[in-house]
């Protein structure tokens, strides 16, 4: 038994390679998305594919997922096979636009599906309706690793497998996917490979961390570093570091990330204090719902996680821009942010993610109604 559409996606990709079609690899800018892109790029290059176009949306500038900004930038590449990794399952409007621009869209994702699917030609997501694969909790890289196995077949050498499992392990831990069943197997094997990785970026990262820490602690530190926002030429730091060709190149990137990590920690403390001040002004708050024009979207996930654990309440934090706001959601186990937002979907531009960690975008005029809708939803769940 395989994940639904895995073979169909594999055949379409192999056909595109044989026909020398242009392929666009579109990945979410977090570590899971970056590792997914690297695995897939190395997979198709091993079949002789020409260098693909790679695009990561900048969350601060564009938001999450397949964006209109990205499509306008990529329009010059049409016609092409555009494949989204770790995003796309909730991009209904954007996928319609992509098709109008001349792209064939394939979605490879692992996020919760909504009440319908986007109009992509092929969707690979173990959480979609009709998927009978027994394990559903892969990171996006886990799904991509499965796809690579089907694409490469006997061309998946031991060294490639090791290479892909290192990245899949790193991303599965980073995305906080349940370490059970197939994820547990991936991590157990991948950790052995990570310790002696050939990748200059991983090797330099491990060498930069105190030797008194065990491997899991070191991996946790590396993940924190790779979550630091540093975009150059549209490529996030995680992608640049993990594809660095030399130790010196990797060390230069690490120097930047260590400096930015200290600034990130200080900024997170500032935002936490500001949220606490806003909370203190409310007598009752069934949910934490707060935004500010000066908050960096990339930091709000960490802040929301802290408040979710402390208050055991749904947390919705957002960066409020001139006309629209985009935000992040964190909830304790047992609550489902995607379902909550599904009940308020008429107020939202886009939304999606995991039950306990997701995101949204909406017009500012709908903020108060969105807040009230969420309060009503969670009140009924108590």
Number of helices: 14
Structure summary, number of beta strands = 10
Distance between the termini: 38 Å
Radius of gyration: 20 Å
Beta-strand fraction estimate: 5-15%
Question: Average pLDDT value?
Answer: 95
Taken from the alpha-carbon principal axes, the silhouette is: globular
Number of domains: 2
Helix content: 40-55%
Describe this structure in words.
This protein has 382 residues and is α/β, with parallel strands linked by helices. It has two domains: 6-194, inorganic pyrophosphatase (n-terminal core) (Alpha-Beta Complex); 282-381, Diaminopimelate Epimerase, Chain A, domain 1 (Roll). The protein has helices at 6-18, 31-45, 68-74, 92-100, 140-152, 158-174, 181-194, 200-207, 215-226, 237-242, 247-280, 297-311, 337-342, 367-381, and strands at 23-27, 53-55, 80-85, 103-108, 122-124, 288-292, 315-320, 324-330, 350-353, 357-363. Strands 2-1-3-4-5 form a five-stranded parallel beta sheet, sandwiched between helices. A five-stranded mixed beta sheet has the order 6-7-8-10-9. The chain starts with 5 loop residues before the first helix and ends with a helix.
Write the layout of secondary structure elements.
Blueprint: H1 6-18, E1 23-27, H2 31-45, E2 53-55, H3 68-74, E3 80-85, H4 92-100, E4 103-108, E5 122-124, H5 140-152, H6 158-174, H7 181-194, H8 200-207, H9 215-226, H10 237-242, H11 247-280, E6 288-292, H12 297-311, E7 315-320, E8 324-330, H13 337-342, E9 350-353, E10 357-363, H14 367-381
Parallel strand pairs: 1-2, 1-3, 3-4, 4-5, 6-7
Antiparallel strand pairs: 7-8, 8-10, 9-10
Helix pairs in contact: 1-5, 2-5, 2-6, 5-6, 6-7, 8-11, 11-12
């Amino acid at each position: 038994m395989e994940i639904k559409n895995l073979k169909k996606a594999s055949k379409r990709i192999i056909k595109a390679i044989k026909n020398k079609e242009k392929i666009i690899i579109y990945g979410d800018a977090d570590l899971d998305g970056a590792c997914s892109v690297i695995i897939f790029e190395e997979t198709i290059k091993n079949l002789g594919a020409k260098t693909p176009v790679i695009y990561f949306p900048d969350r601060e500038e564009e938001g999450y997922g397949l964006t209109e900004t990205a499509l306008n930038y990529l329009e010059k590449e049409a016609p092409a096979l555009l494949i989204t990794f770790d995003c796309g399952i909730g991009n209904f409007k954007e996928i319609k636009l992509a098709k109008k621009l001349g792209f064939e869209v394939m979605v490879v994702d692992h996020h919760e599906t909504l009440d319908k699917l986007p109009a992509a030609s092929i969707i690979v997501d173990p959480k979609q309706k009709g998927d009978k694969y027994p394990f559903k909790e892969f990171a996006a890289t886990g799904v991509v690793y499965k796809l690579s196995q089907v694409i490469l077949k006997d061309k998946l050498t031991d060294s490639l497998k090791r290479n892909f499992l290192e990245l899949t392990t790193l991303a599965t831990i980073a995305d906080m996917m349940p370490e059970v069943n197939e994820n547990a197997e991936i991590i157990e094997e991948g950790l052995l490979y990570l310790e002696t990785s050939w990748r200059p970026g991983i090797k330099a990262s491990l060498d930069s961390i105190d030797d008194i820490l065990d491997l899991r602690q070191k991996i946790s530190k590396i993940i924190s570093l790779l979550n630091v926002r540093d975009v150059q030429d549209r490529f996030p730091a995680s992608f640049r570091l993990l594809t660095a060709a030399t130790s010196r190149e990797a060390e230069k990137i690490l120097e930047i990330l260590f400096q930015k990590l200290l600034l990130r920690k200080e900024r997170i403390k500032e935002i936490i204090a500001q949220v606490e001040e806003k909370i203190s002004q409310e007598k009752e708050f069934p949910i934490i719902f707060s935004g500010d024009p000066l908050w960096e979207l990339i930091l709000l996930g960490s802040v929301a996680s802290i408040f979710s654990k402390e208050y055991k309440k749904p947390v919705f934090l957002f960066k409020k821009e001139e006309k629209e706001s985009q935000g992040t959601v964190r909830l304790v186990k047992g609550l489902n942010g995607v379902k909550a937002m599904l009940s308020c979907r008429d107020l939202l531009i886009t939304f999606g993610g995991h039950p306990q960690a997701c995101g949204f975008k909406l017009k500012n005029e709908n903020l108060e109604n969105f807040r009230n809708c969420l309060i009503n939803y969670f009140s009924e769940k108590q």
